[in-house]
């Protein structure tokens, strides 16, 4: 009871007025990181479509799909996504001094983990939706891949 009132007063006066601007500032790099994940998924699936349209090779399509399933664990391809979030390092330094925010690396790492998880979910959903169509007529496969991609991106 003796701590509650001063703590609420401190939060109301020293933290709450800044929360909106802090969230806006932090969401820039986070949003751009997640947008990069979306773009990477889109680009990779488009490459699969283009490759299949050139070759009509179902074996190569399976190889490409296997590579897509490993995309979340491909640190080289995911790196541009992660780099977008590294901008939080600079933004959080200011918060660290003003609000005693610690564990900046943890915030960045968790955000990058969420990005990887999002990519895992995207490729898994893509594979689940596309899998029944794999045995379809090769003429329709590219169109089906595109439809499934758009569904996943929604």
TrEMBL record:
Domain of life the protein comes from: Eukaryota
One Pfam family linked to the record: Niban2
Alphabetical list of InterPro entries matching this protein: Niban-like, Niban_1/2/3_dom
Domain Niban 1/2/3: start-end pairs: 9-154
Family: Belongs to the Niban family.
Name recorded for this polypeptide: NIBAN protein
């Amino acid at each position: 009871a003796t701590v509650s009132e001063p703590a609420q007063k401190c939060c109301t006066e020293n933290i709450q007025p800044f929360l909106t601007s802090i969230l806006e500032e932090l969401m820039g790099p986070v949003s751009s990181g997640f947008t990069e994940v979306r773009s990477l998924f889109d680009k990779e699936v488009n490459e699969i479509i283009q490759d299949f349209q050139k070759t009509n090779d179902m074996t190569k399509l399976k190889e490409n799909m296997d590579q897509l399933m490993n995309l979340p664990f491909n640190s080289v391809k995911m790196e541009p996504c992660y780099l977008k979030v590294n901008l939080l390092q600079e933004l959080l330094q200011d918060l660290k001094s003003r609000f005693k925010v610690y564990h900046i690396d943890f915030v960045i790492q968790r955000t990058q983990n969420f990005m990887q998880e999002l990519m895992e979910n995207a490729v898994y959903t893509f594979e689940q939706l596309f899998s029944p169509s794999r045995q379809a007529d090769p003429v329709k496969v590219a169109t089906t891949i595109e439809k499934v991609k758009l569904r996943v991106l929604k």
